[in-house]
Amino acid sequence: MAKTKTNADVGDVSILSSGVKIEGRMYSDGNLRLDGVMNGDILVNGNFTIGETAEIKGEIKAQNITLSGKVEGSVSADQKVILETGSRLKGDLKTKILVIEEGAVFDGKSEMSNENAADKGP
Q1: Which of 35, 49, 68, 113 is most exposed by smallest CB count within 10 Å?
Q2: Exposure on the CB side of residue 21, measured as CA atoms within 13 A
Q3: How far is CA 107 from CA 9, 10, 31, 45, 70, in A?
C-alpha cells in the first residue's frame, strides 16, 4: 500500500508573520511557524516553531515544538520540546524529550514520558 505524503512529510512550512493576530482555534496538517500573536488553542500535525516575536495564550499540541517567543498555557509534544535562549513558557509541559537552553525561562510543571504526550492532552 502506498503511503500518502502530508505537508509534514515534504517539509512545507506555513508561516504566519509578526503582523498577524489570531483569536480562536488553529489547526495545521503540516509544519507551522508563528511569529505573531495568538489567543486560543493550536493543534499542529507536524513541527511547530514559535518565533522570537510570537506571543501565545492557550493550549499547544504538536509533534515537535521549538519555542523562541512567549507562551502562557499548556504545551504537549509527541516527541520534543526545545526552549531556546530568550524564550518564556508559563504553563505545564508534556513531552518525551525536553531541551532547555541557557537563558530560557520555564515556570510550570514538566512531565516526560515515552507515551505520546500530545495524545494524552494537557
Answers
A1: 113
A2: 0
A3: 33, 35, 26, 26, 12
What total of structural domains would you count in the chain?
Answer: 1
What is the DSSP-derived secondary structure letter of residue 118? H
Helix (H) or strand (E) holding 7: helix 7-10
The confidence band for 24, taking pLDDT boundaries of 50, 70 and 90, is very high
Residue 63 forms part of a structural domain: yes
Q: Domain residues for 34?
A: 11-116
The structure's pTM equals 0.84
Share of the chain above pLDDT 70, in %: 85
Q: Show the cell assigned to 43.
A: 493543534
- Counts for the chain of helices (H) and strands (E), in that order: 2, 16
Sheet-wide strand order for 88-90: 21-23, 37-39, 55-57, 70-72, 88-90, 105-107
Domain assignment present for residue 51? The answer is: yes
Q: Three-class SS of residue 8?
A: helix
